[in-house]
Amino acid sequence: MLKADVLKELTFAVGEDHVLKDSEDMIIYSNDATMFNHSPDVVVQPGNRDEVVQVVKIAARHKIPLTCRGSATCLSGGTIPLKGGIVLELTRLNHIIKLDAVNKVVVVEPGVITFEIITQAAKVGLLYPPDPSSMKESTIGGNVAECAGGPKGVKYGITRNFVLGLEAVLPDGTVVEVGNEVDGDMCGPDWTMLFTGSEGTMAIITSISLRLVQVPQTKKTLMAIYERLEDAAETVSVTMSSGIIPTTLELMDNLSIVSVENYLKIGLPIKAGGLLLIEVDGVASTVDENAERVSQICKRCGATEVKIAQTPAEAEELWRARRSINPAFGQVAPCKFAEDATVPRTLVPVLVEKVLEIQKKYDVPIFICGHAGDGNMHPTIMFDKRDKNQMERAEKALDEVHVVTLELGGTLSGEHGIGFAKAPYLRAETGAIGYKLGQDIKTVIDPLGIMNPGKMFFYEGKLI
Amino acid sequence: MSMQEMLKELEQEVVKCSRCGNCRSICPVFLAENNENTTPRSKARMIEAVLEGDLEVTPGVQERFDKCLLCKACLTHCGSGVKTDKLIMGARAATAERNGLPAIKRLAFTGLRYRKLFDMFLKTGAVFQGIIFKKLPDGRGRIARIPLPGSGLNLRRMVPELTSNPLRSRLPKVVKAETSSVKGRVVFFTGCTLNYIYPQAGEAVVRILTRNGWEVIIPEEQCCCGTPAFTSGDIETGRTLAEQNIKALNIEKYDHIVTACASCGAALKNEYEHILQESPLAPKWRELASKVLDISQFVIQHCDMSKLGQLPLKVTYHDPCHLVRGMNVAAEPRQILNSIPGLEYVEMKDANRCCGAGGTFSAVYYDLSRRINDKKLDNAEATEMDYLVTGCSSCRMHITDGLNQRNSTMSVLHTAEIIDMAYEAGRKEGKYA
After folding, report:
1. What is the ipTM of this complex?
2. Which chain B residues are Cβ-neighbours of A31 within 8 angstroms?
3. Cβ separation of A24 and B46 shorter than 8 Å?
4. pTM to 2 decimals?
5. Which domains does chain B have, with CATH numbers?
6. CB pairs below 8 Å between A and B: how many?
7. Considering chain A, what percentage of its residues have pLDDT values greater than 90?
8. In this complex, is the C-beta atom of A329 within 8 Å of any C-beta atom belonging to chain B?
């Protein structure tokens, strides 16, 4: 519990309505989209940058842990207040400050919903490409802090490729601006990238300048059906090495196909071992040619059928299948470890084979799907946490997925972040020196260690 | 059942919630409040914490469960298939068991159980409403003269007039078909709002049916469908009312049951499932439920739409939650509106988003429900149509209130009224000759 005078100071800073301290609310704010919980002592909802500054100064003065939160759709425990203290909910900072169509820049507050940026940019003929599955709920602040990706990552890149500059409140309450709206700013090291993906362990982002791109003239969607999942995976690396860069290249395994079909009933090939959903965009002539070439590659790699959507409605139907995988998970088991193991794209077939082995070895259902085009796979391990034995097997399978990914030269996280859930494996990825450097950098910026404690380089559990 | 047992029953729904936060993009209460403690996922989380012993069933928990419109938007949107309506109603029942219901609701639901007393109360109310409410000059309804704390009335709020001559007093128990050959017998379940507040819409339903060759039976013993009670957690009253209705309807011989109230229809067709689990009348209910049709469904399936006449009106349509998600009725009213010659129809943005009424919700959280409603009104007015058509009297009341407060020129009609007008136009055109 926080002392009464601290609560008084917080109330003075943001107003009584925006300081939540009821026991019910502490439970409600104890989790994100993972299965872990830890209650905060208080939830504070600042309405602007200056209020954030005041709250941070109070936290620093009293050495109170501070954990930022947007929509809490995080899949790595990033917004869980592991050490209690203050949850700083930034969803009231939800204004688009500036949309500059000529310079193709949008400046936003961190609480703006990602999809709102995409919508507003589209109105002036521009595109904000990162499109995480949670884009209709997630805040851009969270996307930047966790460095979210999405299907379009294959061609356009992930969130970090679009962050030009940030304004952030440091743990002592001072405000720093890093980067700027000029694409190509190179004054010193890339500080902006230091904060991008720092998962709230260093600073509180209060304003973000994002790069926008031209909306492609046209696009085409294809679906390739395979008897063997391995052939679908093989297609990914063959396509990428042919020189064509699709906008998206999504892989679905049989479990995904069957579950989605049960849910949507749109006539997906339930006997297929796997399928690929591919989109190419650009100018009309290139798009047609690329679609044809991709179609041939798919067939060469063993696709039994390749469908090209003829109308936007048909394309939308194919995409609905992809977007419905997450909903369909629930049919198999109530709980899941949603991973984002990412390997060099040429190794996608190897990763797929290894995950199939792990599935067999631990006898737990694993959905194998994901943004195969950039190697960012989403092996999703399903279980029922009430079944202790099954949960243990799921945990072992999860460990092994991480180990395999690293062995293949991949990374633990293509987009979900490290947070708490993947922190045990972080040193295995960075190496001991990198890990120590991570700790040192964080300590310089946050000497009191109040920012999102217990996460990333300051995980207190056992390291693997 | 004890409160713990009741909550335990919800565990299988709670465990399905992956906490993904998908519901944040769809919940109208959350979108208006921007506060996590109004999201469906937070409700699953609270039940989980109670079951794990981390949280007491406090009045605070109850309050958070009350702040839900039961619009079912999250239910259809939830990727993991969590039956959120079951969660909320279950938790409301459990918290009511523990903490009781507010006195005003307790009194009202007790009143509902005594059909004759309830009827007398509302009829008397119609006579005395002038003391508390002043009439609006244009006949749109009434607003309160004095603040009435705890009644859910706000000085701004316009409530419709209670009729001094309810629908069921106006009509005989059996209304004969207007045609020479009779197609069959239809039981009309009127519900309370059509009976006491919008009897003209109820009369429209009867005219549509009789004109199309159906004999209409209006059982005297029918009572409130129970929705206000069981959605508030008073399962016992809900069950008593449901059983009374099943008995009242089953005395009659009928081919179909027609409703013109989204909530009554959803209750009779689907929602009784939740409350009749231990009732001996459950099998009877299942039989009955299969015969329930909303008036718009009935018109499409069993009426002659070629006799709809010219109606040069400009119309948009609002989907009541309990029709679109409670009864799966969305295409039918649109199909009818688009079949009326001369009628101009424009779809509004987010037509199927809740209007914010939510039955007793708008009484308890008037300001919040008004903010939710304002979005609906913005979308409706953006169509530049003259009429908003909807199939739920509760939506109608709330939308009319909002339009009144912004001095809008848009009017609200029940789907049945516009169908009736079109048939009347058809008669004048000689289509019945």
Report:
1. 0.91
2. 19, 45
3. yes
4. 0.91
5. 3-99 (1.10.1060), 103-159 (no CATH), 167-222+240-300 (3.40.50), 307-428 (3.40.50.1860)
6. 91
7. 77
8. yes
